[in-house]
Amino acid sequence: MEQILIVEDDITLNRGLSKALKDAERRIVSCESLKEAKEQLSLATVSLVLLDINLPDGSGLDLLEEIKTSDPKLPVILLTANDTDRDIVCGLEQGADDYITKPFSLSVLRARVNTQLRKIRSESPDNAYVDGPYSFNYKNMVFTFEGSAVELSKTEQKLLYMLTENAGLTVKRETLIDRLWTDGAEYVDENALSVAVKRLRDKLNAHEKIRTVYGIGYSWVKENE
Q1: Closest residue by Cα to residue 205 from 128, 145, 161
Q2: For the packed helices 34-43 and 60-70, what is the interaxial angle rounded to 10 degrees?
Q3: Nearest 5°: phi and psi at 95?
Q4: Contact 170, 44 (CB under 8 A)
């Protein structure tokens, strides 16, 4: 599932952007400051960043520079005011993939966002993850261990995707529960996650690969880590 990070301190606009971009195959995370954005970037894999330049705790251009230094391929679209041509030029020179000036049409915004996401998908057409004896092709839903196919449930597939997309990082239990069970249920028994993790470990013989970080969550251990 793709994840879009919106960094915009105007609460009304932030909500409007979230509503306009959200769909069944996409998760939206909203932030109103640089501090919140950096925390989100450290917690999970992001597919695209929609970044306002003028934020209450600094310039979005500083965050842009950090993003492009650590992950040059992560697309960033700048949101700017009409009178900030200098900022636009600076942003593009620092690696911004696109910019949109305020006010703007939400339909145009969606089109620009979708263009950037299609570009990323085309650069990794099979959406595969390979780690030693493990090969996971998320596009074709083919999962193998030492060359043998493994049948996974939809929940197990989503769980595995979240762990491998954040390989080497700890994914919090509450984040996994929120992403795995999105049917609108008000309450999900946390034991359901423990059961899903156990089944996934057993099916993939991944008892050493899927690490429990007690009191926090789980992580997929990278090869040679």
Answers
A1: 145
A2: 20
A3: 110, 5
A4: no
Query: Is 110 in contact with 20 (CB distance < 8 Å)?
Result: yes
> Which residue, among 110, 81, 114, 116, has the nearest Cα to 95 in the 3D structure?
116
At which of 77, 103, 123 does a domain end? Answer: 123
Residues 196 and 94 occupy one common structural domain: no
Q: Report the C-alpha dihedral over residues 188, 171, 71, 126, rounded to 10 degrees.
A: -70
Q: Are residues 47 and 140 in the same domain?
A: no
What range does the domain containing 198 cover?
Answer: 128-220
Q: Of 104, 123, 142, which marks where a domain is finished?
A: 123
Span 66-124, pLDDT tens digits: 998 888 888 999 998 866 678 788 888 889 999 998 888 999 999 999 999 888 776 65
The total domain count for the chain is 2
pTM of the complete model: 0.57
